[in-house]
Amino acid sequence: MKKIRIILIILICMSFTGCWDKVEIDRRVFVSTIGIDVGKDIEREQELKNFKEDQLFSQRDLDKLKITYSFPDISDFAPNKAVIKGDNMFTVDTYSMEGALGEISSRSSRNVYMEHARLIMLSNDILTYPYTMTEIFDYLERQPKINRKAYVVMTEGKPEDFIKFKPQIDSHIQSYISGLMENSNRNGYVLPVTLNELLMLLTKNGNAIIPSIKIDKEKNELILTGTSIIKNYEFKGKLDPIETLNLEILRGKLKSGIKVVYDEGHPIDFEIDGVNRKIKAHKDGEGSNLVIDIDINLEGTIKSAYFDKKDFDKEKLKELEDSFDKSIEYECSKVVEYLQKEAKVDAIGINDHIEKFNPNIWKKVKDNWEESFSGAQINIKVNTFIRRVGITK
Prior knowledge:
Number of domains: 2
Oligomer: single chain
Domain Spore germination protein N-terminal: 21-215
Domain Spore germination GerAC-like C-terminal: 225-390
Membrane topology: Lipid-anchor
Largest sheet: 8 strands, mixed
Strand content: 25-35%
Family: Belongs to the GerABKC lipoprotein family.
Strand order of the largest sheet: 4-3-2-6-7-8-9-10
Subcellular location: Membrane
Distance between the termini: 74 Å
């Protein structure tokens, strides 16, 4: 009886295996990168706002978007030749994201498969059209076949040019940029954002942050230029790589990063490998303004000093720690000032903290958080702890 049960279980399991959609792997186009840019008719998007129901309108008359799908070229792939030459791509001028997919499907002899997409590129131009961006993000949220773990970046230029770019290390642009994002545990100048994280931020209040990239044509290099700020589905401002590292410190999410101060004219490099952030929120004495205290504890290692320097004693270490405290406090305060006065976007996550741990205060400020954040008194206190100084004689 026991053997019969085992045989039945095996047969049941076998019935649920196999290629359920009956599409062979060599009949698929595995999209790895999606590039989203403005179309030639993007300025006509306002026409739809004034469109009346009794008017005849063809959706294909309006090419608001230019969508590029990149996929590995597996035309010569074989068991005895397991090499992928590079990438191919489809580019479509269309009225919507779904319209682009439909047109690509009609032009391809293979099934378009997007569940393996690793990278989504948004041009800096498309991010200046919030009306259209709401449609794009709505599509990305509703589409179950797009990989939610795909990284999202803003391109300073046309995504199509980035897809055509050939990195020196990787033969595929999505592998190269994904590698840069995944190196964030060793490089604090990178703030990786997945599609799932981006949609969660936008769903909450329409604000988010994503990394930005550009191509240096003179050096023929692709470089990270910092972090772009999205407010109400529109590009609002940008932080350079150093400001991005300081933002990660303020968010308490920095995994690794280098800070430097000068001692007797020599640079002292301090590698941060631990961050502990605490936030306290309260009203001032009169109860009108919001006061935020951000206490940050950093610890790490001295990576470089100068060769003829004697071993650091306690007094010298304390002097260096004080120097790093002042330097990092100043840099972080400049980032906070920019976020409060110019961008007017809480990219630090103060609102999340108050909502969770100070519900009474949150009830008073949630309906007008932008104004409350911009007018808040934010005090930053940094405590640096040099735990190691490397190997010395």
